[in-house]
Structure prediction request, 387 residues.
Amino acid sequence: MNPIADGLDEVRQTPLSDVRRNLRIPWYRCPIERETLRDLAEPSDLRGLAQSLGHLGLWVATGLGAYFLFASQVWWGFLLALFAHGTVASFFTAPRHELCHTTVFRTRWLNEGFLRIFSLLGWLNFQVYRFSHSYHHRYTLFVEGDREEVMPETPSLRFLYLLQLFTVNVTGGYQSQGLLPTMRNFGRLALHRLDRPFNSWGPELYAEQPAEGRKAVSWARLVLAFHAAVILVSVAAGEPIVALLVSGSAFLANWLRYFVGVPMHCGLRSGVADFRKCVRTITLDPLTEFLYWHMNWHLEHHMYAAVPCYRLKRLHRAVAGDMPAPRTLLGAWREMRETWRRQQVDPGYAYDTPVPAPVEGDCGRGREDPLAASMGDLAPRAIASGP
Prediction:
């Protein structure tokens, strides 16, 4: 039983324009010098290119390696390369996230171009996500306005589910991109069915914004056309392996993306105006952190979303004294699983992260610097400037 999700039908009756007008959350933000924040929030084309081309380069390199090993009939080598290729591709959700915030590059067309590349290759509808994610940041875990993340969720370790995550992800799940739900979602959007566009969102997401809905429909059709062309050309050329490496990579070896993605909010408190209580930061090895676009510093990202991903670790050091200690990946999973076990008896339970006492003033819940509250250029203009 999910007591919060059970109330979704009721909250869906409230138009989102009313939510934007009436739900004002006094978010707590850890104190930071304004000059320090401005310095951290400065985007860099060079850093953005290193991050974007590095991720794409790994995908191309693992794909080429898998192709040549397949052609050479080195089957164990091919399977290992295919596993690495899928692992890299499963993290394309991370650049989609960061590039939607438009904080990665100083030059706007670079940001928009890479956003479309990663979204196209990763079977991702950035138009829907950009719309949904603006609500997620404004109203994190307040179900009245955030239906991208609705807690509680299950940090599943079921054998058959893990088997899919280490091979081909067919059915998907929380923080997991399955083949069947992805095809179903893109098919529905391509047919202009916006009644279930993303996660726990229903028709209310686009009810008042039909023009934004048409953008999501157009992108869904483009993605389907692109991958249909890749598959048809590959098969016609006698190289179906190319279709697997290009169009199938997002559904292979999703294991690592699942393990690092689930801890961001799972098991934490809903309806509390302190990011330290509803968002979790974890530490990762350098390669996984790179693939995840540094989103393991997730608490810092929610608190100061204008800061580019490659500066979030520096941001953490600047505010560490007012933050909970970062969890390890293993520690976060232990915490989530223990929380989940308690929720079987008490469905309303959530882990209450111990934090320092809030600091009042300009940076706490007092007068807020617009840069501190900025989400980048995330929200579509249709909802960014008013109710």
Remarks:
- The chain has one domain: 5-380.
- The chain has a mean pLDDT of 94.
- Strands lie at 282-283, 327-328.
